[in-house]
From TrEMBL:
It comes from the Bacteria. It is found in: Cell membrane. One of its GO terms (biological process) is transmembrane transport. The chain crosses the membrane at residues 68-89, 101-124, 130-149, 179-206, 226-244. The keyword Electron transport does not apply. PROSITE patterns: ABC_TM1. GO terms for cellular component: plasma membrane. It comes from Streptomyces mimosae. This is ABC transporter permease subunit. Residues 64-248 form the ABC transmembrane type-1 domain. Keywords: Cell membrane, Membrane, Transmembrane, Transmembrane helix, Transport. It is a multi-pass membrane protein.
Length: 264
């Protein structure tokens, strides 16, 4: 069984790598043959040469750290605020109905529309990025927690109450395990939104980070560096998503959804 899974993993990895190489080769040929103007689309080999050059230098990792610091602080604060609020609202239908209109109004507010306010209050530093990330990621985490708490099986909840379990024991043994997959999904969604918003804020207002470096490279007409930095932002998002998936599989390996995923 283990050997079969290993062979399947190697085959899947080979297919994924082959697909990426085919796309990169096609872009290289299009640029070299003139189908794509080299003034705007430099050859892939030049872009990746610049990428490896950046990876060997200290400034790239500094900019990644600046972007991820805002991402981490924003996600952390949003989680600390949203999880208790979601548990409260999910456990109390009256409170949920009272706040539902406010949630539905604030949730779709475009994050870009808040950038002028954030700059006015916090300037263009780390605080501005954290404020935007907290506001935007608060809502998906909150809603997932609410749905998770409301999705607790009423039979299980009533059985725990009938056996005389105190409220805290019911929360940790019934409510929290039921809501955990929803919380994990909310955090994974919020992670992607937070990274996009951090880079967007850096692009628009020039806050330090990867977005600012992309703008500087574009202003200097250094297109290989610009594309290399764009690739870096994609790699950062990919790594973060893989990390959240790995943590979710590790912490929720008892959940049926994770067992089914492993079996597949």
């Amino acid at each position: 069984m283990g050997r079969l899974l290993g062979q399947r993993w190697v085959r899947d990895l080979g297919l994924k790598v082959s697909g990426v190489l085919v796309v990169l080769l096609a872009l290289e040929l299009c640029s070299r043959t003139g189908l794509l103007s080299r003034d705007w689309f430099p050859p892939v080999t030049e872009t990746y040469a610049e990428l490896f050059k950046l990876a060997a230098g200290h400034p790239l990792w500094t900019e990644i750290g600046r972007t991820l610091s805002g991402w981490a602080l924003g996600i952390g604060l949003a989680t600390v605020l949203a999880v208790p609020c979601g548990i409260l609202l999910g456990s109390n239908q009256t409170a949920y109905r009272m706040t539902r209109v406010v949630i539905e109004f604030c949730r779709p507010v475009p994050s870009v529309a808040l950038i002028p306010l954030a700059v006015l209050v916090y300037g263009v530093g780390l605080e501005m990025k954290v404020f935007l990330i907290v506001f935007v990621t608060f809502w998906p985490i909150l809603l997932q927690v609410i749905y998770g708490v409301q999705d607790v099986d009423p039979v299980v909840r009533d059985t725990a109450r009938a056996y005389g379990l105190p409220p805290m024991a019911r929360f940790f043994r019934v409510t929290l395990p039921s809501a955990a997959p929803y919380i994990a999904t909310g955090l994974r969604i919020a992670s992607a939104i937070a990274l996009v918003l951090a880079v967007t804020a850096e692009l628009v207002v020039g806050a330090p980070g990867l977005g600012q470096s992309i703008v500087v490279a574009q202003s200097n007409a250094n297109l290989p560096r610009m594309y290399a930095l764009i690739i870096v932002t994609g790699l950062v998002g990919w790594v973060l998503n893989l990390a959240f998936q790995a943590i979710e599989r590790r912490l929720l390996r008892w959940h049926p959804s994770q067992r089914q995923e492993v079996a597949q």
